[in-house]
Specification:
By secondary structure, this protein is of the alpha/beta class. The chain has 10 helices and 12 strands. Strands 7-8-9-6-5-4-3-2-1-10-11-12 form a 12-stranded mixed β-sheet. The radius of gyration is 19 Å and the shape is globular. The relative contact order is 0.16. It binds S-adenosylmethionine and iron/sulfur cluster (SF4).
């Protein structure tokens, strides 16, 4: 098992397969994707080597992310590779949902077990304002299709000052009947969004207090479940999650490691740098790759220092997948 010096265990890999995106979310890529880095993304063989090295070291869950993972034409094959790797029990993707309606059946057939779709607003105009894309209707149809397919669906919504306060009621109404977990994510500061962060960051704590006052109860989760806090209510089919990276002890329950789309290991979303693994991945020597992963994990820090304004090498989350 991959375990660091603080006793945290890492059974969860977030695998980025591209940093390209077709949306221009105002908190992430406000000017759209800029093609200023290598686009030599991991190929299927390399992905196979990585997933089996992690699985051999006790990883049981892989989340495929990006950029926008559905921009890769071989996404369905990537899902199948992960799902067929012995030891991998859960394969999830995080997507902006633009291909959901068309592809969800193929993804499920390939072995997808869970899906996160980013929907920052249920108001079509606000959605377009935030993402630069007028696609809310088709994304919601895709969500319906995924729910019908019986797959576990989470909706990610970033908390943004100008939108979120009046959006909460609308989101709550929606999950009365929708069997999804709606996760509010506090806006995180990255290298590129400092001014936007200062103007738009909204704490999740008042929302938590509001939920508790309205009869929502916090679900006690296993430490291995990760840093989201979850809530349920007897009148609602859906659940609510809160991800508050600025809260005390957020990093104590860290259970994940990240691989970038060009094969670098990131010990934290806000690490100072990615650690080069590609030459070893390409060598195909499983044992050497596993030894290196264990060795590099020794450098994982206790916390991200985000509360001190330190964002590491992360210019935006499309670089690594959030
Ligand atoms: N393109 C896909 C999507 O949007 O779902 C996957 C990649 S995106 C970087 C992953 C998640 O990170 C999304 O839910 C997005 O809303 C979130 N995200 C991006 N930038 C963020 C930021 N600065 N703070 C908090 N969440 C952010
Ligand atoms: Fe693209 Fe996702 Fe970033 Fe939005 S949050 S710009 S969809 S990578």
């Amino acid at each position: 098992m991959l375990e660091d010096k603080l006793g945290r265990r890492f059974h969860y890999l977030r695998l980025s397969i591209t940093d390209v995106c077709n949306f221009s979310c105002n908190y992430c890529l406000p000017d759209g994707y800029q093609c200023d880095s290598s686009r030599d993304f991991l190929n299927l063989d390399e992905i196979r080597h990585i997933t089996s090295a992690f699985a051999q070291l006790g990883t049981s869950k892989i989340r495929i992310t990006g950029g926008e993972p559905a921009l890769r034409k071989d996404l369905t094959e990537i899902i199948a590779i992960c799902a067929q790797t012995p030891g991998i029990e859960q394969v999830a993707i995080t997507t902006n949902g633009f291909r959901l309606e068309r592809d969800i059946d193929a993804w499920c057939k390939a072995g997808l077990t869970a899906l996160n779709v980013s929907i920052d607003s249920l108001d079509p105009r606000q959605f377009a304002d935030i993402t630069g894309q007028n696609k809310l209707t088709t994304i919601l149809q895709g969500v319906e299709k995924a729910v019908k397919a019986g797959i576990k669906v989470k909706i990610n919504a970033v908390l943004l000052k100008p939108y979120s306060t009046n959006q909460l009621a609308r989101f709550l109404e929606w999950i009365k009947q929708q069997p999804v977990t709606l996760r509010f994510i506090e806006l995180m500061q990255t290298g590129d969004n400092q001014d936007f962060f200062r103007a738009n960051h909204l704490s999740g704590e008042p929302i938590k207090q509001q939920l508790l006052q309205q009869g929502w109860s916090q679900i006690i989760r296993d430490k291995a479940a990760g840093p989201a806090q979850e809530f349920m209510h007897p009148d609602y089919v859906g659940r609510i999650g809160l991800i508050m990276p600025y809260s005390k002890d957020f990093c104590a329950s860290c259970n994940r490691l990240r691989i970038s789309s060009t094969g670098k290991l990131h010990l934290c979303l806000f690490a100072e740098q990615g650690l080069e693994l590609r030459p070893l991945i390409q060598l195909g020597d499983q044992q050497a790759l596993q030894n290196e992963l264990v060795n590099l994990l020794g450098n994982k820090q206790a916390t991200h220092w985000l509360q001190d304004g330190y964002t590491g090498a992360t210019k935006n989350l499309a670089m690594l997948g959030g």
